[in-house]
Design a protein that fits this description.
The chain is of the alpha/beta class. Strands 3-12-11-10-13-5-4 form a 7-stranded mixed β-sheet, sandwiched between helices. The structure holds pyridoxal-5'-phosphate. Pyridoxal-5'-phosphate binds next to α14.
């Protein structure tokens, strides 16, 4: 730790005195934090620059592209060209957690399987793909390629590919965002470059190269990969940079999940209201994915939903930024934490300032979790429910447990006006963010590590 370093006019040593939580995070202790700055939804919504109209606009755009998906990715025909993931209850995993932690999780634990989203097998299939479509539509309109009433099937044509081949797209990623942006951009005919941090798995790079994507590898972490992508694009007016740290477009793409979830709840016979509160636990890297999803969910379910972000102890950037109020001005490296984790999707040392700012009044809390625990729950979920996820996707699974075993989290419902009785009707939704495309040998290795953790 560099005690002398100044952040927003204070030394790290002083910050540690002001915010004792920093010491705990620096020691890599699993940590919980409840957001005392959370506002009643109505107030938070009123002061937010983004609105429900923005969520609807993004949803409408995805609907317009449904005809395109049906022809370009035939696997989406079953869902009529809509990319969506299953929602299911996981009673056997809930029982396993109760036994393991000698607790009784009140209510029911459900899982949202973004791990099984079509095309790129992670939550990035929401925001990442959406931003590429946004750019493609904009170019098509500017170039006069689209007439009112045209089916978007035309995006899957040589004529469109020829036009898009005059443009390029760049992105920096720890792996999954690159996979989504790369696959989607290449399919539409763009030249696409993915700047991969050292965390990125080899199979993700191999898969992208096989699809004609240019992959640039870095020895360094995510922030550097992003900076390099930004640099490349800055010098080229025909290059669009997907800015994972600041993009409102990505954020809105993620937020559409909420509209879909509302329908899935209806179909599954689930009610969310004051007597049936919803708790959502979202794995968090830079913040765009979980932030966008939580933003949409808060717009729709208001004060009846409570969102928590989950991060590895080694990459607890959002927790650090929110708990200190320093947001993206502080990084985990500033407090001597190394940003090295097996949860490659979450290996981010500095949170998005944009997301941290927008979400500060909406979020209920954050927690950090050790890598071995993600592995262990990975194996348990495979054994109890037959669901195979990548390590990052298990970060949220600890949330329902903490609501009963952690003193701060256990006190949260009462502080939010939720009685014990009402908690018995709670829905805990674990957002599973990736894993269906992990090669079987690699998954077997994850599983065995989990069995031994
Ligand atoms: C990217 C990612 C996340 C988190 O999304 P951010 O936008 O980086 O916060 C969570 N899980 C997986 C598997 C991911 O790939």
């Amino acid at each position: 730790m560099n005690y002398e370093k100044q952040i927003m006019g204070k030394s790290v040593a002083q910050l540690q005195v002001d915010y004792p939580i920093i010491k705990r995070l620096a020691e890599l202790e699993e940590t919980t934090w409840i957001n005392s700055g959370r506002l009643p939804s109505e107030k938070a919504v009123a002061q937010c620059p983004l609105t429900m109209a923005d969520v609807q606009d993004a949803s409408d755009r995805l609907d317009r592209f449904a005809d395109y998906f049906k022809v370009a990715f035939p696997e989406t025909q079953a869902t009529d060209g809509i990319l969506e993931s299953p929602l299911q209850q996981i009673p056997h995993m809930q029982a396993c957690l109760n036994t393991e932690f000698d607790c009784e999780i009140p209510g029911k634990v459900w899982i949202k399987l973004d791990s099984h989203l079509p095309i790129s097998g992670s939550i990035k299939a929401r925001g990442g793909i959406y931003e590429v479509l946004y750019v493609a539509e904009k170019i098509a309109l500017e170039r006069g390629l689209l007439k009112a009433g045209d089916s978007y099937e035309v995006f899957h044509s040589q004529k469109f590919r020829d036009v898009f081949s005059q443009y390029s797209i760049a992105v920096g990623s720890t792996g999954n965002l690159g996979l989504s942006i790369g696959i989607m951009s290449a399919k539409l005919g763009f030249n696409v470059t993915v700047h991969m941090s050292a965390d990125a798995r080899q199979w993700k790079k191999d898969m992208l190269r096989s699809k004609g994507v240019t992959v640039v590898e870095y020895e360094s972490d995510y922030s550097i990969a992003v900076a390099q992508g930004r640099q490349q694009a800055a010098n080229d007016p025909f290059c669009h940079f997907v800015d994972d740290e600041n993009s409102k477009t990505l954020f809105m793409g993620y937020s559409v999940a909420a509209l879909r979830l509302k329908e899935q709840f209806k179909t599954s016979g689930l009610t969310v209201d004051a007597r049936h509160p919803l708790f959502v636990y979202l794995p968090c890297g830079v913040g765009g994915g979980p932030g966008g999803v939580a933003f949409g969910i808060k717009q729709i379910f208001g004060d009846n939903v409570h969102c928590f972000f989950a991060e590895p102890t080694h990459s607890c950037c959002m927790l650090l930024g929110m708990a200190t109020g320093l947001n993206s001005a502080i990084s985990v490296q500033d407090i001597g934490v190394d940003n090295r984790t097996v949860a490659d999707g979450l290996a981010v040392g500095r949170a998005s300032g944009f997301v941290g700012g927008v979400m500060a009044p909406f979020i209920s809390g954050c927690y950090s979790i050790e890598d071995w625990r993600m592995y262990r729950m990975l194996a348990q979920l495979a054994d109890t429910e037959g669901l195979k996820l990548e390590p990052s996707a298990l970060a949220g699974m600890y949330g329902p447990v903490l609501m009963t075993t952690d003193s701060q989290f256990a006190a949260y419902p009462a502080s939010a006006g939720i009685s014990r009785e009402t908690m018995e009707q709670a829905i805990h939704l674990v957002w599973a963010t990736g894993g269906s495309m992990v090669p079987p040998e690699e998954m077997q290795h994850y599983y065995e590590t989990g069995k031994n953790s």
